Description:
By secondary structure, this protein is mostly helical. It has helices spanning 2-21, 26-38, 47-52, 60-64, 68-77, 96-108, and strands at residues 79-81, 84-87. It contains 6 helices and 2 strands; from the N terminus they run αααααββα.
Amino acid sequence: MKKLLALSTLATVVAAAGAVGHAAPAKENWDNLCAKCHAEDGSGSTKIGKKLKVKDYTDANVQASFTDEQAIKTTNDGATKDGKDLMKGFKDELKPDEVQALVTYIRTLKK
């Protein structure tokens, strides 16, 4: 009985540790954090996106205009223009591998 209880406890701890360390898929992060402004397809065609004049990530020229490093920095730190906050940073919400995966995902939006 003690062995069964110990194995059950160990399984619960391992499962909980896995859930805590789990990184959300890039598409899920995009849908939850980015799509409300940048649109699901990356076109920026939302009401907020149009107001803020966000970049159209479906445009190959737009994609060529920034490096992955610049996209990572913006995702982490946010974006401002003329002292006005345009986008909040996500460094406190996303792990570095999630940010990298998000940038990789953004690159797939190019048509």
